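Lab notes, practical 5.
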Amino acid sequence: MILNWIDGFEISVRIENGAAVISANREGFLSLANHLKSLVEEPLGTHIHLDAYNSLEEGSSELIFETI
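Output from the prediction step:
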C-alpha cells in the first residue's frame, strides 16, 4: 500500500484520561484521510502503524488503523 503524505503534515497522538487525542494541521488530517481511503481498499487485516519513528511528532503515542 502506498501512503500519500501531503507536504508539511504534522500529526501527534497522545492518550489523555484513557482517550486517544489526535492533533494535526490541515495537511496532517488530509494525509490521514488519504491513508484511510487506501486502507479500505486493501484485504481484511491490513493495517497502518504510525509512531514517533514513523511520521508522527516526537513524543507521540502509537497509532494503528486496522481493517476488520
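Observations recorded by the TA: Residues 11-66 form one domain. The mean pLDDT is 97.
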